[in-house]
Amino acid sequence: MADESTHTRQDSPLDGIDAGGDHPKLALGIDLGGTNIQAGVITERGQVLGRAKVKTDVESGFEAIMDSIASAARQACEEAKVPMSAIHTAGLGVPGPIDPEKGVVIEAVNLRWNDAPVVMGLSDRLSVPVYADNDVNVAVYGEWRAGIGNETPNMLGVWVGTGVGGGLIINSQLHRGAHYSAGEIGHMILLPGAHLGSRSVEHNCSRTAIAHELIKLIRSNHPSLVTSLTDGKLHKIKSKVLAMAYEQGDDLVRTVVDDSADRLGMAIASAVTLLSLDQVVLGGGLVHAIGEPYVDLVRDSVRREVFPESLRNVSVEASMLGDDAGMVGAGLIAFEELWK
Questions:
Q1: Pick from 4, 64, 74, 228: CA 20 to 30 A from residue 219's CA?
Q2: Is 101 exposed, middle or buried (0-12, 13-18, 19+ CB in 10 A)?
Q3: What is the pTM of this model?
C-alpha cells in the first residue's frame, strides 16, 4: 500500500466544529503505518476532536506495537479532553489485507506480520470493540463519507506513495471482495511484456518506482537537481525531494514523474471502464507533495483512455482530508460496524 505521506497538515476543515449535542458518540480512528501511528478521537460526522502521533518501531514486534497504538489512542483522548470511558468503539487501518471477520491481519509486509490478531490485541488494551481493515480502504471510506467523495455511489480511491494502494466504493458500500483485496490497483499488470518486477502499476507508478528510475538515469550521467537536494545520497529520494525538483523545473524529474502519472491514469481508466465509475480520488504522499500538476496529468490520462465517451467527464480529484483520511475513515467504519 501507499503508506508514505509527506503531506503537512495545517488546519483541517474538521477541527474545532461542535460535535452537536451534550454527549456526542465518539470513536477512536487509528492509522497504523510502517513509520508512524496516528490516532484521533472521531465523531459520527467525521470530526477530529483530538489527535496524537507516535513512531512505529517495527523491530519491537507485535505486542510492543499494540502497546504503542494504545498509548497513541490515550494521548488523543487527552488532547480531546475526553476520558477513555467516553469512547464507544475503535477502528484501525493496517497496511495489508485483513480478514475483518476474524480481526486478523493476513499479511503486513512492512510490519513483518502474518496472521496477526490485531482486533483482539487492541480491544484487550482499550476495553472497547475494535474493527480493523486495510489502511487504504479506511482512507478511501473516510474520503467518501467526510471528504471530497460526497457519498457518490461508486468511487475508486488510489493512494500513491511508497507503493500504490486502492479502495472501492460500489453501490454506496466499501467493496472488499471474496478475499478482502478488492481495489488493489497497484498489483494490476500494466506492462505484460516487461521483465519480472517491472510489470505492475506499483512497479511503474509508485514513488519507489520513480526513485529507482531516477537513480538509474542519474548514474547513467543524466543531470538532475535530485543529486544536490539529497546531498548525493540518492537512497533518500522521498516525495518531498521529488516535489521540490519538480517545482524547480528539473527536466529529468518532470519526465519521469509525468510518465508515471500518465501510466497511472491508464490503469485507472481501465478500472473506470470496467466498473463504470463516476469518481476517482487520489491520495498518498506523492500526490500531496506534488499537488495539482500531478493530479492534472493523471486526470488527463484517465479521460483520454476511458470508454465510453460519456465517461470522459469522470471526476478525478485529490483527497480533501489528506493525512486525516485514514483516521477519519477508521473511526467511521468502526461506528458503522458497532451499530449493525
A1: 4
A2: exposed
A3: 0.89
**pLDDT < 70 stretches in the chain:** 1-23
What pLDDT sits at residue 2? 52
Instruction: Tell me the C-alpha distance between 81 and 72, whole Å.
Output: 14
Distance CA 242, CA 231 (A): 14
Strands 48-55 and 36-43 come out as antiparallel
- The grid cell for 101 is 471477520
Is the four-CA dihedral 113, 7, 319, 334 of positive or negative sign? Answer: positive
